[in-house]
C-alpha cells in the first residue's frame, strides 16, 4: 500500500480534536500539508496512510486546537502593564480620562508596533493562535506590520470615534470621517482565505459612535462578510447614558437600529437586563467575556452578570483578556470557576465548555468556524503542543480537566499557525525575542514619561 507524502507528521501525541464527536486520541497522529491539516486520528492508522521526511515524536505532548483570544488591546496596555495601581478607586469616567487615555495617547507609531509584537508573542507563547483586536489602535499600518511579523492570525481595526459630545462639533463631518476610515481600512487589509491579518470595521462601543456610524459599519460587515466587535455595558454608565439619550437601554437601542446579528461581538455586557439578554439570544449576537478585567475592574459580574443564562439560551460565549494578562488559559480557568460559586452549582461552565469557548466558539465569532477551532482534515493547521513533562501536567489522567484546571501558558512548547511553526521549544521562530524585550523596555519607559501619568506606590521604590 502506497503512502501519501505530507510535509509534517506528528506521532504518538494525545490529541484533543474538538470535532463534532469531541474525540480525544490517546495515541494519535497529525498530518500536515502546507497550511492545512491533511489527517488526524489514531497513530497506527495515520502512519499506515501517510509518510513524511519531517516526523516529530509527539509522545510528550497534548495537542489542542489553537486558542482564540476574542478581545485584546494589543496597544495602550502591553507597554504600560501594571503601571496603574490596582487600588485606584474612582468613577469609570475619571479612571478613563486620568489613568487610561493618557497612556494610549502617548504612543507613537513605533511604540504601537512594538506593543503589538509583544502582545502577539505573549498570546502565541500561551497558545492563542488567533485574536480580535479591541478597536483602540491609533497607527493601524504599524500594528499590522507588528503582529504579522510574529505569524499570528488576527482581525484588527483603527480607533474610530464618530460621535459629537459637544454642540459645537459637526456631527455630519464626524460621521463622514468615521465611515471613510472604516471603508479605507477594510479595503487596505481585505479578508480572504489566505489572509492571516485583515481588518474589520471595529467600533469601540459604549457611546463613542453615532447611529449613522453603527449602521454604516454593519452594512460594510454584511457586504464583505466581516465582523464587528464593540465594548458595551461593563458598568452601569452605559445603560444610564443610553436611557438618558434615547430612552432605552444599549442593547435595545442597537436592536432597534437593526445592527445586532451573528457577525456582531459585544464585549463585557455585564449590566444588561432580561429584555437585553433575550435580544442578544434571539439575534445570534456573540458575547465576549473577559473574566480577569471584569474582576479587577469591579464590573459586578458576580452579582449582576448573566453569562450562564446567556449560554443556556444558546448565545455564543467567547473569551478574551482585554488589556491584562494575555494568557487566555487563565481566562478559561476563571470562567470555569466563577459562576460555580455564584450559582452554587458545580455544573455551571464545566471544563469542556470552557475549552469550547477558547476554540470553537471563538472560531465561530471570528466567522472562521469552517477553517479553525478544531483539528480536522481540511482545516487550517493552527494548533498547540502542550508539554506534559512538567509538574502541572503530571499525573495526566483526565486531559481536558488537566488542560483547564492545572495547565496554563507555561507549558506551551510549540505552536503552529497556517502550518508554520511559529513557537518552538518555548520561543518564537519569527523574531529575536531579546531584541524585542529591549525595545519594549525602551518604548514603555518613554510612553509613561510622555503620558505624565503619576507613579503611585504604597512602598518606597529606591
UniProtKB/TrEMBL annotation:
Amidohydrolase-related domain ranges (all copies): 62-422
Keyword Repressor: no
SUPFAM superfamilies, A to Z: Composite domain of metallo-dependent hydrolases, Metallo-dependent hydrolases
Keyword Hydrolase: yes
Domain of life: Bacteria
Keywords from the UniProt entry: Hydrolase
Coiled-coil spans in chain: none
Gene Ontology molecular function, alphabetical: hydrolase activity, acting on carbon-nitrogen (but not peptide) bonds
Family: Belongs to the metallo-dependent hydrolases superfamily. ATZ/TRZ family.
Record's protein name: Amidohydrolase
Organism of origin: Paremcibacter congregatus
